[in-house]
């Protein structure tokens, strides 16, 4: 009689399914990379290294290298893009600076947080000097740094950046603009992280009300604001309010996607 000890490496049906899915994904990724690499070479031959379409193809390939965690290849290619743009349009041209911000996450992965922070701060200073403090590309650098600081739980550094983003979008677009609301949520998260619970609750409540009034209860902005508000309420011990918000959130998901979808999401979360 066969027993489990005779086949110690035998996979269960579920494990076999997962393994096959991973294998197929690896094959598809490799095939997509080869396609992009061939496309880049064809663009170079037909248009030259510095043509816009060639650089865009190289950018797409760099992103795919990042998605597949081939960081050395991504780094080499992204630096080549920056080199070409520096030669053709200059090191302070918006396109060159845009290519540099795409290098930042690669630096984070290859060289670590300190290198990423220095690179990102230098790039931000350059964009401020060349483009101005309120330019969308400058705000992109501010937001990238704010998100990174938040992920690193450096809320004291992230908070003023989110406040800057909120103020800039408020003056440009108004208090109920989506980007203003998103920045307000960021501020509330940082206040929560700092333990300033009442301030976080007040900020998120006001943000939720603005989104609800402007975009309605089913908009992604309102749903995200409600989820953040429920999280703060739970931390404060207001379980009843948190449950009310979470239930309203769940009801809207059921209405939008169906009971089976919502149940599947809950099972994944469990």
Tell me about this structure.
This protein is mainly α and 270 residues long. It has helices at residues 13-47, 52-67, 71-89, 94-111, 113-131, 136-151, 155-173, 178-193, 197-215, 220-236, 239-257, 259-269.
What is the helix content? over 70%
Beta-strand share of residues: under 5%
Q: Would you tell me the structural class of the helices and strands?
A: mainly alpha
Unreliable spans are 265-270
Provide the residue-averaged pLDDT: 88
Estimated radius of gyration: 24 Å
Number of strands: 0
Encode the helix/strand succession as letters.
Answer: HHHHHHHHHHHH
Shape: globular
Oligomer: single chain
Largest sheet: none
With helices defined by DSSP (H or I, 4 residues minimum), what is the helix count? Answer: 12
First-to-last CA distance: 38 Å
Record keyword descriptors for this entry.
single chain, 270 residues, mainly alpha, 83% helix, globular
């Amino acid at each position: 009689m066969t027993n489990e000890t005779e086949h110690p490496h035998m996979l269960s049906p579920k494990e076999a399914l997962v393994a096959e899915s991973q294998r197929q994904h690896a094959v598809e990724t490799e095939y997509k990379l080869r396609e992009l690499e061939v496309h880049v070479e064809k663009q170079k031959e037909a248009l030259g290294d510095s043509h816009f379409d060639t650089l865009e193809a190289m950018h797409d390939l760099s992103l795919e290298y990042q998605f597949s965690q081939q960081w050395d290849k991504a780094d080499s290619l992204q630096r080549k893009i920056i080199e070409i743009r520096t030669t053709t349009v200059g090191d302070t041209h918006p396109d060159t600076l845009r290519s540099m911000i795409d290098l930042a996450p690669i630096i984070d992965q290859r060289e670590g947080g300190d290198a990423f922070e220095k690179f990102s701060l230098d790039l931000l200073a350059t964009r401020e000097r060349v483009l101005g403090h309120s330019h969308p590309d400058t705000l992109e650098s501010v937001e990238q740094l704010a998100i990174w600081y938040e992920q690193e739980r450096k809320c004291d550094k992230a908070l003023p950046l989110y406040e800057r983003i909120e103020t800039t979008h408020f003056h440009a677009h108004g208090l109920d603009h989506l980007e203003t609301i998103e920045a307000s949520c960021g501020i509330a998260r940082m206040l929560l992280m700092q333990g300033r619970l009442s301030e976080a609750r007040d900020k998120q409540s006001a943000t939720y009300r603005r989104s609800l009034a402007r975009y309605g209860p089913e908009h992604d902005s309102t749903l995200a604001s409600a989820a953040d508000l429920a999280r703060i309420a739970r931390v404060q011990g207001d379980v009843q309010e948190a449950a009310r918000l979470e239930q309203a959130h769940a009801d809207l998901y059921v209405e939008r996607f169906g009971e089976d979808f919502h149940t599947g999401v809950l099972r994944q979360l469990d």
